[in-house]
Backbone:
């Protein structure tokens, strides 16, 4: 059984005390920030109503609400970090609920601002944002102006804000079910020994050389979700319906357009990704056949896709060793970058390292403008865990550099570019480990990890993106989402992407039910575009100091431009298919290398 939270040593936990020394200190700050009565918590905001045509009033409002938003963000980060430590802790649930409600109140009390600004004539609005005092906020205001066709009256905007908590309920319910309530039968190895199965241990078992352990882990995890297929279908349907509601309310032509428009990403970027992927699927089919051959299998199943191709390369790495490797690998980005990361991982305790009972599964990077970065891990010592640490450290350094360089209002980088820094750091670590490799087995293992990285991050996430687009299109067409329909389409896509060689086990059909990103509103495609951009930038940056400097400037740019423009300035144009084609070409070259060494 996983350890309890109290059994995890302090040095292995993230330093939440740097945010607030105690839960009581958080409560004190919450009380100071929460304002007055729930009906009108911050009357200071309302005093600007009807005055936004005056540049000085608009400037004062922006300064006031950004300062308040910073305080709320700090409160929110602490509450969500504590809850993710133990999703069954009622006190943490309560605190997270309180700050979530307060943020909703803030959004409600700010909901009049954009409609009032957009109520100005286009000429007056353009004149306003050109005022000298507002130049630090010009890009922020231009983004608001872009939403003119999709902004409602102040009363309607307030209603949309009020609906937020209800619309998020399906995601919260999925999180509670997935992370806290779902239990699974133990996995069983070839000797008949049972092993506790959880979301946190699952991938570790998938990399085991014991095929019976892999098979039973795969079956029992998915059977756990299958037992709740109807509930999970209703949850994902509820989330899709919330996306459809908001798209229609804001007068978008589709859910996809609604999700991409605020970031100035055209739907064709999404559609081109899927189209490019379809052209490269024969190479994926070729890889599946090669994996089957190397593993000497009569049949290849989905539970055979994660196991290392060479047994002797399946070595464990302690967290301390992983940390040192990650720090050493970023040397090409300069001493300043490396020292900042070293300080964070060694001294400041950015990372919550190991799994404990009821801890959130997976990994992420979090934090706010007034905090250090925080990294959630569930470290088990596999190569994947080592690369995950590099990945999340990439996110964290992107956040740190943006916060150090940009004012608060531009410190948050757009989601579209979020995966570039993380996967760039994975490439740095893989390059470092390849140079240190002492055997053919290690080199094969690392090449295969790169192949698997592209498979999981470009091919698999594009499969998810295609599935996500389909279920939203069905909702737009009024087609009811049922478990049978979702299973059928998911199986069809897996057959298309992985080819005829792989066995489609019945359990595979329910996999859609355990993917949290389907609740994130067209997020997953950005893993594919992000890795494509990262692979392209990595090749260029390692060959050119100028590109490397441009990449570091990109990491410090936060959200000061639209995401496509940020990447173009760094050296890659995502309006074209070049980066995706380049990444898929690298997949082909890696496949050739693997064949030679096998």
Residues:
């Amino acid at each position: 059984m996983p350890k309890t939270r109290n059994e995890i040593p302090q040095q292995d936990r993230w330093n939440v005390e740097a945010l607030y020394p105690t839960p009581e200190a958080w409560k004190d700050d919450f009380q100071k920030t929460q304002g007055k009565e729930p009906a009108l918590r911050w009357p200071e905001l309302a005093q600007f109503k009807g005055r936004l045509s005056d540049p000085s009033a608009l400037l004062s409002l922006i300064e006031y609400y950004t300062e308040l938003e910073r305080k709320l963000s700090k409160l929110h980060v602490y509450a969500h970090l504590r809850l993710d430590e133990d999703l069954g802790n009622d006190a943490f649930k309560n605190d997270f609920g309180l700050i979530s409600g307060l943020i909703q109140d803030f959004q409600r009390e700010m909901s009049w601002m954009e409609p009032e600004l957009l109520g100005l004539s286009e000429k007056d609005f353009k004149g306003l944002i050109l005022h000298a005092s507002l130049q630090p906020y010009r890009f922020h205001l231009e983004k608001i102006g872009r939403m003119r066709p999709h902004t409602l009256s102040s009363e309607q905007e307030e209603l949309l804000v009020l609906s937020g908590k209800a619309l998020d309920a399906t995601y919260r319910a999925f999180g509670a079910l997935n992370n806290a309530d779902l239990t699974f039968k133990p996995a069983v190895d070839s000797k008949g020994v049972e092993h506790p199965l959880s979301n946190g241990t699952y991938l570790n078992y998938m990399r085991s050389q014991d095929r019976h352990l892999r098979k039973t882990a795969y079956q029992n995890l998915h059977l756990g979700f299958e037992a709740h297929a109807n509930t999970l279908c209703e949850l994902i349907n509820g989330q899709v319906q919330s996306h459809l509601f908001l798209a229609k309310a804001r007068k978008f032509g589709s859910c996809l357009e609604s999700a991409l428009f605020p970031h100035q990403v055209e739907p064709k970027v999404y559609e081109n990704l899927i189209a490019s992927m379809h052209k490269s699927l024969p190479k994926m089919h070729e890889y599946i056949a090669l994996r089957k051959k190397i593993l000497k299998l009569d049949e290849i199943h989905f539970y055979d896709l994660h196991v290392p191709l060479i047994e002797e390369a399946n070595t464990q790495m302690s967290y301390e060793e992983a940390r040192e490797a990650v720090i050493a690998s970023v040397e090409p980005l300069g001493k300043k970058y490396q020292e900042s990361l070293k300080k964070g991982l060694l001294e400041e305790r950015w990372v919550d390292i190991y799994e404990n009972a009821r801890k959130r599964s997976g990994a992420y990077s979090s934090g706010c403008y007034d905090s250090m970065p925080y990294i959630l891990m569930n470290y088990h010592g596999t190569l994947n865990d080592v690369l995950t640490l590099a990945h999340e450290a990439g996110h964290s350094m992107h956040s740190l550099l943006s916060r150090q360089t940009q004012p608060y209002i531009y410190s948050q980088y757009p989601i579209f570019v979020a995966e570039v820094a993380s996967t760039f750091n994975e490439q740095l670590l893989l390059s470092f480990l390849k140079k240190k490799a002492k055997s053919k087995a290690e080199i094969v293992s690392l090449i295969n990890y790169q192949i698997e990285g592209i498979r999981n991050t470009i091919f698999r996430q594009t499969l998810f993106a295609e599935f996500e687009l389909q279920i939203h299109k069905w909702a737009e067409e009024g087609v009811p989402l049922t478990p049978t329909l979702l299973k059928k389409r998911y199986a069809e896509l897996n057959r298309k992407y992985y080819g005829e060689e792989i066995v489609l086990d019945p359990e595979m059909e329910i996999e859609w039910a355990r993917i949290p990103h389907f609740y994130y509103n067209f997020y997953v495609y950005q893993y594919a575009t992000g890795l494509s951009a990262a692979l392209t930038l990595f090749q260029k940056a390692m060959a050119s100091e100028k590109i490397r400097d441009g990449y570091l400037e990109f990491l410090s740019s936060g959200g000061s431009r639209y995401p496509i423009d940020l990447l173009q300035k760094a050296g890659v144009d995502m309006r074209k298919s070049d980066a995706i084609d380049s990444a898929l070409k690298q997949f082909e070259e890696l496949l050739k290398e693997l064949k030679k060494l096998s």
User: Anything to note?
Assistant: Residues 329 and 429 are 5 Å apart (CA to CA). The mean pLDDT is 95.
